[in-house]
Amino acid sequence: MRPFKPTAGAVSMASRLAGASTPLDARIIKNGIDPATYRYKLHFNHVISSGRVARAREVFDQMPEKDIVSFNRILSAYSRSGNVASAEDLFRMADHRNVRTWTIMMSILAADGRGSDAVSLFRDMLREGEAPDRVAVSTVLNVPGCDVLSLHPFVTKLGFGTSTVVCNTLLDAYCKQGLIAAARGVFLEMPERDTVTYNAMMMGCSKEGLHREALQLFSAMRRAGLYASQFTFSSMLTVATGMVDLHLGRQIHGLFVRATSAHDVFVNNALLDFYSKCDCLDDLKHLFLEMPERDNVSYNVMISAYAWNRCAGMVLQLFRKMQKIGFDRRTLPYASLLSVAGSLPHIGIGKQIHAQLVVLGLTSEYLVGNALIDMYSKCCMLDTAKIIFVKKREKTSISWTAMLTGCVQNGQHEEALELFCDMRRIGLRPDRATCSSIMKASSGLAMIEIGRQLHSYFTKSGHMSSVFSGSALLDMYGKCGCLDEALRTFDEMPEKNSITWNAVISAYSHYGQAKNAIRMFESMIDCGLYPDSVTFLSVLAACSHSGLAEECMKYFDLMKYYYSISPWKEHYSCVIDTLGRAGYFDKVQKVLDEMPFEDDPIIWSSILHSCRIHGNKDLAIMAAKKLFIMTPTDATPYVILSNIYAKDGNWEEAARVKKIMRDRGVRKESGKSWVEIKRKVYTFSSNDQTNPMIADIKAELERLYKEMDKLGYEPDTSCALHLVDDELKLESLKYHSERLAIAFALINTPPGTPIRIMKNLSTCLDCHAAIKMISKIVDRNIIVRDSRRFHHFKDGVCCCGDYW
């Protein structure tokens, strides 16, 4: 502020502003301060303190001398009122800015979801020579999605490497981005640690599934004599939730009650979440009713818990109760309710919530928009989700990930890959959720080359240090038929959680290696990790693929009675499939009677396939009739029942079933196979004539058939059950889609290269026998992923042991 020599006019003006009866402070004149500016500032402080931001701006604009303190106050007022545009205009017009000015503006941009702009502003501040203080550094590190790896050197260079406050923020930023190894490095190098330090590290470990390490940190914190805050208890409950350890959670609950008044709504909400994740609905309800204070989060957790347990009535009841209690309708947990509608899935509930959001004018809200995309995607209304995504004014990486994930969930894997490329083109940084979803797109297409490119990209971007990203990579290799690479990824992961173990058990399951899947399950238990529903589903599926009926029932009972995990319908489906394929139809009926769910097409399809294997014609007829009603447009039950009749020599009934199928307009799905060569996918159908190389493909097959004849190959004409002569039956078998794809790959890849084929239907018996021989003749690994599982052919043997 410039020294000012007061004049009579200035004194007169200041007196008029303040009122003629108010005497001037002699110190104003003595210190050479402009009286008008002084009075304006008093008036400005009064107006802005009363919350009249627009009037405060008018007074500020009229001030003869504008000081930086007043400037920062009005900038902060714009921040509190959410007036980002006015804040940006004011910031741009500033002749002078101090570190506080820059920090406030960074906070405004970050709160508006413009993290990249906030980080750019920080770099502008450094370029203009303004030295940041620890508040400015902490602010930029708190920006969601900031490139903390590149900001870390600035922190050290600016001399904040020993500041506990800044180091806590740096550590927390690493943890939030899943970079636990880097966070651990910061933690170990800190000269002093406080409760916040331990809380951030514990929460980071628990989020990454490193529950044992989080517990060790908690013990170290108590040994250091540091007090446990509400965030400490919340972190430890997250650990107990992740471990599904009810005993540990109850111990933490008791410790919380002894250490505090037990009235903290934040910790009580964490307890609610813990009991809900452990499926302890009675404890959950009891705690909820005893809570002296409940907020939006309390109801949110209850709603999510009842939704997970498929209690749609309770979900709606709680939501209506929130409305009656008087919670502001604009602050109700709409995003959670949309998530509930998607998880059920229940499009009716979803549309009702959407309608309320339209009435309230909340559809443009950041979280709500993302939740709408997620809900419509999960309810199989992908086109509606796309419309919402396109209309969304501001799209962050979370919005793109929601849309990308929706495409994956609906089988639109190519479109998901295109979205990922678009996301990168506009400069958005994918996070670990994006990484997980795009890996699923790659595995859905079984395009291993794209998967390897993604592996390279995410390694360079630092996401592979995350246990979740590593697990997604493992799962991708497993589903692309690269079991060796999946196992190598598993072995190389420095940290593993239950998701990692589930992925490797699932990989063994898809390959029919049930004993290895069970071995990994036992190793997981030995490591102190608790199996969840997904773990048991993979183990049961492995038993199903290998025909291990006794083991299947053993682990099914273990899940129910030892681990107290309520089976899903999918678990019952695996058990029924295993027992049926083993021929235990009386036990199948017993499981059906005990199952607390309505039977569905998947279960009856499994029973029908079992009847085909064992020739149980009576049960097959019953299963087929149920499927005719449940899935009237699916040709599979008609074809299987017709084939059962044909195999029994009852051609009249076989023809009658096919006539019913034709009369109802049901068409059999054509068998298709595809193969990836040099990053391009080639698709084949049975007896395909469209490929330009079809003559070469057929010539290669004829060459192989001659070699197969020498090895004693005899075509299985039962796989061509038609009322035609044997010559036409043999001809129809020769050019099945997977054989055309294999011949094409043999012509277009170097000797010794593994061949990976995808097929939309189950491989027939004759193709299975033929591919075994081809693998021996050409000395190649041939991996076929059909609609049920993987078949890895090598040296004339398949990994399934001829059981599928």
Automatic annotation (TrEMBL):
Gene3D superfamilies membership: Tetratricopeptide repeat domain (1.25.40.10)
MF terms in GO: RNA binding; zinc ion binding
Domain annotation DYW: ranges: 712-804
PPR repeat boundaries on the chain: 98-132, 163-193, 194-228, 295-329, 396-430, 466-496, 497-531, 634-668
Biological process annotations from GO: RNA modification
The entry's keywords: Repeat, Transit peptide
Domain of life: Eukaryota
A Pfam short name: PPR_2
NCBIfam families recorded: PPR
Name of the protein in its database record: DYW domain-containing protein
Species this protein is from: Digitaria exilis
